[in-house]
Amino acid sequence: MPISKKTTEMQKKRAIAFSVLPTRPALYSDPEVLAESSFFKNHAEMFSTTPYPVRLLTGADYNQLSTAFFQNVNEVLTGSESAQKAVSEVEKVAKRIVR
Description:
There is one protein chain. This protein folds into 2 domains: 5-48, no CATH class; 54-97. It is built from 5 helices and no strands. It has helices at 5-18, 31-36, 54-58, 62-77, 83-97. By secondary structure, the protein is mainly alpha-helical.
């Protein structure tokens, strides 16, 4: 979905007038926003973080590990698999991915 220029402009106005944190990363380095409140400069780093640290280890294979995890948890919760077997299955997938 393309970023709406109108939305960005509105967020900029709200950031300047009311110190509302924008969702557009570029606004955290916008000179006009920073001139009004240097507070925003401290928040720019939140856009450079990784939401799931495990992605650093799994990279593009994150979805495989996530799928193995939720499928095995579901099997334990429904009683079709023991917790020990589920952990073993997830561990196999994790070890294959993270070498």
